Amino acid sequence: MKKVEAIIRHFKLEDVKNALSEQGISGMTITEVRGFGRQKGHTEMYRGTEYAVDFVPKVKLEVVVSDDNLKNLIDTIMRSAQTGQIGDGKIFVTDLSDSIRIRTGETGEEAL
After folding, report:
1. What pLDDT digit, counting tens, does each position of 51-105 carry?
2. Where are the alpha helices (DSSP H) in 12-109?
3. What is the per-residue pLDDT for 42?
4. Average pLDDT, whole number, for the chain?
5. What is the DSSP track for 76-95?
6. Would you report the helix, strand and coil content of the chain in percent, each value rounded to 5?
7. Which CA distances in Å does 61 have to 6, 13, 52, 91?
8. Domain that holds residue 16
9. Predicted TM-score of the model (pTM)
10. Is the separation of the CB atoms in 73 and 65 below 8 Å?
11. Is residue 46 packed enough to be buried (19+ CB in 10 Å), middle (13-18) or exposed (0-12)?
């Protein structure tokens, strides 16, 4: 099993969610996050005054999938979240040793 964390733009969330649903991938956690990478934030104007926004708002999408579905998941996120501009985000993949469904006690991939 793998845990995939994708940091994406806010306005791409619906596109990614719909694309994942079409691929039969269900179950995800969404968190609103702020951060910066190479773009190091940006400047904005408010009432004639320029100020720096150091941490850019993004959305973190977390999905756990079987090893067999990993490539499909990554390809779907890439295709639906990409704009071609700096700040499109990142995808991180980590190994999971186990998962447990609290209600039934199922473990492993049956718990997904």
Report:
1. 777 788 899 999 999 999 999 999 999 999 999 988 899 999 999 999 999 999 9
2. 13-22, 70-81
3. 63
4. 90
5. HHHHHH--SSTT--EEEEEE
6. 30, 40, 35
7. 5, 8, 26, 9
8. 2-111
9. 0.84
10. yes
11. exposed
Domain count, the chain: 1
Structure tokens belonging to residue 84? 């071609």
- The tokens of 72 are what? 């499909």
Q: Are 51 and 44 in contact (CB under 8 A)?
A: yes
Give 60 or 38, the one with higher predicted confidence. 60
CATH of the domain at 96: 3.30.70.120
Query: How many CB atoms sit inside 10 A of residue 22's CB?
Result: 10
- Angle formed by the axes of helices 70-81 and 13-22, to 10°? 140
Q: How many residues does the chain have?
A: 112
Q: Which residue from 78, 77, 86, 112 is spatially nearest to 98, judged by alpha carbons?
A: 112
Please, which residues have CB within 8 angstroms of residue 70's CB and are 6 or more apart in sequence? 2, 4, 93
Task: Please tell me the predicted confidence (pLDDT) of residue 75.
Answer: 97
